[in-house]
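Hi R.,

Here's the input for the 2,5-dioxopentanoic acid complex you asked about:
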Amino acid sequence: MKLYRTNVGCFVEQAGVYYRVPLTSWDALVTHDDLHAYLLSVIDKSEGADLLVSKLDLDSAQLLAPIGNQEVWAAGVTYFRSRSARMEEAKTAGGGDFYDRVYSAERPELFFKATASRVVGHLGHVRIRSDAKWSVPEPELTLLINHRGQIIGYTAGNDMSSRDIEGENPLYLPQAKVYDGSCALGPCVLVSPEPLPASTPISLEILRQGAAVFSGATTLAGLKREPASLVEYLFRDNKFPFGAFLMTGTGVVPPDSFTLAAGDRVRITIDPIGTLENEVVQGR
Ligand code: DO4
Ligand code: MG
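And here is the predicted structure with 2,5-dioxopentanoic acid in place:
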């Protein structure tokens, strides 16, 4: 089931059929005792009833980022490709070794990424920092976790990153990662109690003036850590009364010669979720 948040309320879609969700507060949905069962009951009750809507209703609404009072956190260096990229960008600063060590350490790298005000939804504008010279999108499967620490859904995420700032000194990571428009989530949340299969593909395409300047893909099989283990570390000694999002790390990194430019379009596709597309801007 796909759950969409829009300017006229929430919608759920199953097998191409769309229903209006009576509970309109996003936080109330995320903190529901059993969101999956609740949405199934919405679908059940609306057979031939007034909650059934046409796809046109959703198309004419404005999609919003699927977030309320949830914090967004992120895991780093969870794919071998990210380990290599981080070691390369940090080598002159002497920071390369840290990334190698965290890749195989028991404790994962987890960092704070964003609050809702810094997050954009599908077709919103992601930003390059005004003081960054080397920026990339990071396509990441993103977990939606309720306040009890249960994974209740999945969305596509873009962990926008300033590689020059991150590479200059690992202690600059928060500045490389956390700023307005640094995170995109969407287009919907796939609500499922089942883990996604290892074969789940995650792909990234970057378009410049309509032409592809980069495309790459990975699968969840390359993710070194179990999502449940990342969640366990995040919730250790940490309460999230409204639940949280956890980005699981990138396995797709454009070549070191590549940097994003204003006007680029970033497309992140995770098959059972859909495509998250955003235009890149720099400055205000
Ligand atoms: O260690 C820096 C962050 C890495 C990251 O964001 C990723 O691997 O996705
Ligand atoms: Mg990342």
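One thing worth noting: The chain has a mean pLDDT of 95.

Cheers,
M.
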